[in-house]
Design goal:
Elements: H1 5-11, E1 15-19, E2 25-28, H2 30-36, H3 48-52, H4 57-68, E3 72-79, E4 87-96, E5 106-113, H5 115-161, H6 165-188, E6 200-202, H7 204-216, E7 224-229, E8 237-239, H8 241-258, E9 264-279, E10 285-294, H9 302-305, H10 323-333, E11 337-343, E12 347-355, H11 366-370
Parallel strand pairs: 7-9
Antiparallel strand pairs: 1-2, 1-5, 3-4, 4-5, 6-8, 9-10, 10-12, 11-12
Helix pairs in contact: 5-6, 7-8, 8-10
The structure holds adenosine-5'-diphosphate and magnesium ion.
């Protein structure tokens, strides 16, 4: 049988590279090229170090195998990409066959893309976190709401009965602050209460225009320039208009606040996405709409990126820290997803992906979001 080795390699779902004894590339398949993000540089005849750079993580694994003579497997090595964030890849490197004593052997490198698994893992922990918010919210509401009502009533009574101005002022201060706490508890209750949506056909562009005008009128936002990149062929989507308005307004406010006081451009774009489709309850890919908010603010440090959607996490002196967690909650109820990408010093990009049709209302809405395809 005359085997077409390259043909077999090309058909593999894993990335494979074979090196000769001098670390020159003998064989490389398309998946390996994709994972290494270096389509042109990784070619037969070239040395691996030359193609990737000597300090590349894959070269480091190969060097280790050369030194020890033993196979080596590394989980979720971050493979740098030229214009994208790194891809987590399992890398297995081993010697092929038996080289003559003291002579280097040929080497096989196998690489498996782990981004889908990682996304799924993150999604699951995100969902668990959201559920725990619900429990906490319900607990707080129960324990805090009733006493608050008592405090408010008592303060009003004191205010009405007291004869001097100072006591009356103090009493009304108590009432005001109690109302503020109640407001926060109400907002937190979003996580505990149902997630029923009032669905209708929504024109995303009209909705965006209305709230962009609204947000620009707010103090401090005069220097913001809004750039609209709307896809005119975007269809209406089935959604809860007022919830979506809240989602977008929270994101637009964050973007504008991030650019205070200097100002800058907020680019809002819309379109259908092909490659990042959501998966519906039936397991089938859903036509998906993407709304993107790109600002020119300072960006978000890596160290806090994972905590942004935790209720009450804020870096602002007067922030509530509820904007993003509430936005994420409603996007999930729609069977969609929200992603934040940020580059320090350049700005932040928030993508909201929504299915064209919202998930059926009697089914638990979160299930749709759990089966998202990788992004
Ligand atoms: P709040 O706006 O009340 O602080 P959010 O939940 O809306 O609460 O946001 C949480 C935190 O996330 C903010 O305090 C800020 O640090 C960060 N953040 C959100 N959006 C952006 C953005 N576009 N640019 C920079 N930082 C942001
Ligand atoms: Mg906010």
């Amino acid at each position: 049988m005359n085997l077409d080795l390259q043909g077999i390699f090309d058909a593999l779902l894993e990335g494979v590279i074979v090196l000769d004894a001098a670390d020159r590339i003998e064989l490389v398949n398309p998946e390996a090229r994709r994972l290494l993000g270096a389509a042109h540089d990784v070619a037969p005849g070239k040395s691996l170090g030359e193609a990737l750079g000597a300090d590349h993580p894959v070269c480091a694994v190969v060097a280790r195998v050369r030194r020890s003579g033993r196979a080596s497997i590394h989980d979720e090595v971050e493979i740098p990409q030229r214009f994208e964030s790194p891809i987590p890849v399992d890398v297995a490197v081993s010697n092929i066959g038996d080289a003559p004593r003291g002579r280097p052997a040929a080497i096989a490198i196998a690489m498996r893309d782990r981004s889908a698994a990682r996304t799924l893992r993150e999604e699951i922990s995100e969902r668990e976190r959201q559920e725990s918010y619900g429990h906490i919210a319900a607990g707080i509401a129960h324990e805090v709401r009733n006493p608050l009502g008592g405090i408010r009533g008592a303060a009003e009574l004191i205010g009405m009965r007291s004869k001097d101005e100072r006591s009356r002022k103090a009493a009304s201060l108590i009432v005001g602050e109690v109302d503020r706490i109640s407001g926060l508890v109400d907002e937190l209750m979003i996580f505990a209460r149902g997630d029923r949506l009032e669905l209708k056909n929504v024109n995303i562009h009209r909705l965006l225009d209305t709230l962009l005008d609204l947000a620009r009128l707010e103090r401090g936002h005069e220097m913001i320039k809004i750039v609209r990149r709307y896809d005119p062929s975007l269809p209406e989507i089935e959604a809860d208009e007022s919830r979506l308005q809240q989602v977008f307004l929270n994101l637009v406010r964050n973007a504008m606040q991030a650019m205070e006081p200097k100002g800058g451009r907020l680019t809002v774009s819309t379109g259908m996405t092909l490659e990042h489709r959501l998966v519906g309850l039936d397991g089938r890919a859903q036509p998906t709409v993407r709304i993107r908010f790109q600002d020119e603010g300072p960006g978000i440090p890596e160290s806090i990126l994972g905590r942004l959607s935790t209720p009450f996490f804020t870096t602002k002196p007067k922030g509530t820290g509820l904007g993003l967690s509430v936005a994420r909650h409603w996007v999930r109820c729609h069977g969609g997803r929200l992603r934040i990408d940020s580059v320090l010093g350049e700005g932040t990009r928030v993508d909201v992906d929504l299915p064209l049709y919202a998930p059926a209302q009697d089914a638990p809405a979160q299930d749709a979001a759990d089966q998202e395809t990788r992004s």
